[in-house]
Amino acid sequence: MDALRATPGWHAVAGRPDDALxxxxxxxxxxxxxxxxxxxxxxxxxxGARHEGGRVTLPPGARDGFRALAEGGWLALELPEALxxxxxxxxxxxxxxxxxxxxxxxxxxxxxxxRAAARLLAEHADPAxxxxxxxxxxxxxxxxxICISEPGAGSDLARIRTRARHDGTGWRVTGDKIxxxxxxxxxxxxxxxxxxxxxxxxxxxxxxSLFLVERGPGVACTGIERKLGLHxxxxxxxxxxxxxxxxxxxxxxxLAQLFxxxxxxxxxxxxxxxxxxxxCLDMARAHAAERCQGGPPDAPPLxxxxxxxxxxxxxxxxxxxxxxxxxxxxAAVSADLGRDNRCAxxxxxxxxxxxxxxxxxxxxxxxxxxGAGYTRDHPAEQALRDARVFAIYExxxxxxxxxxxxxxxxxxxxxxxxxFLDRARGDCADCPLRLAVIEDFxxxxxxxxxxxxxxxxxxxxxxxxxxxxxxxxxWLSARIPGSAAAxxxxxxxxxxxxxxxxxxxxxxxxxxxxxx
Length: 516
Description:
- 57% of the residues lie in helices and 12% in strands.
- It is of the alpha+beta class.
- It has three domains: 2-142, Orthogonal Bundle (Butyryl-Coa Dehydrogenase, subunit A, domain 1); 144-252, Butyryl-CoA Dehydrogenase, subunit A, domain 2 (Beta Barrel); 396-510, no CATH class.
- Strands 3, 4, 5, 6, 7, 8 and 9 form a seven-stranded mixed beta sheet that branches. Strands 1-2 form a two-stranded antiparallel sheet.
- The N and C termini lie far apart (50 Å).
- Residues 146-242 form the Acyl-CoA oxidase/dehydrogenase middle domain.
């Protein structure tokens, strides 16, 4: 609640969820997550999903866990009431979802794609399709997937070969899709696949349209991946053989329309990262308080939580947790207020650094637990395996960085970048150290704004996004003045930004290197 109250605009969008109601919502989410969802996570990792006879079976308890989410209304908090949702602000989802992701990121993969598809169909589908599917998705009676990648087309969407043809009576989709989370399962009888397919011969992505294809005749799950983590989340290969399909939105606008779903899922990855990081931080804190080692030889050993290096590990992750939570709420409230461009500017960073925080927190937990953390007797090793993929799906870090730099920060003469700098300067005017970080970042962006060579911008994108994240955290830390997180962050912010600046300024060398 403190982070919500600290987010400008929260009370302007809150409406029904006043502070008391919001606290009750958060408490109920935490109760359900800890009591029903979390107990499924470890056993689900050990047993995993199974693919037999063309169908996928999930670990025991998964169906009951998903039903509990659906019956509580947690799949549709921000959907309009007319379509089966609760009609709450997106900020409520951003505040609540980390509790469920903390409990079981694997099971929440089904919830994430279903929620995102419901928003997609609510915005772009024809009324008949919308009214048929969105309430059913909101109620958890059906689930949905996003189908983009193919064997020869991962991030290179211009090479998509799956075809959609109109046979005079309707559309039919033929092709193969891979990396489809919950592409088949036994949670619900009906699954809708949001499929990006080529409906015209126009080159590149202009010929791509979006279709809803239901599991049934013409759709086959040909296998599931054997993965490092998220074992309870089946990652499927799907074959479509003239499968009946419904066109979603406008033909040829598939990729643009799909970004409604992609943006939602990138925000979800941010909540996923926050949830897993919180779990790992609490795990490490509990162990550090109980595990006793060291101290004077003539006295009882001390809890390792009193060792300076352990305190450093815990404090740095706690700092990043607090600042990521503020960023998530800032993005969600911006969207609730209709400031979608501000949300879009933050999303590549939220997705990237939420993913990295989850992995780093899991790595920290393994470190604090020592040898025990490296064993399957403790959940830290599962968190480490599960979290690695967060930086890969829904757009890799490199893709997020290029989106952040080229499409969000430099497009339209840098309007979104200037909007951030203006707000940050105003909010940080009374703190010289925060303001210095903002000005360092503004100065760093001067050269990229004048750069016209696209390869050089791409080479600089990653360190520039990391520099931006440092500036964003400096700005957000003003909302928690005097806190341990803010003080710790500000102590190292300018040197950290200088390191990213050096990396960005030398990035052109990677283009010019020969034989590497």
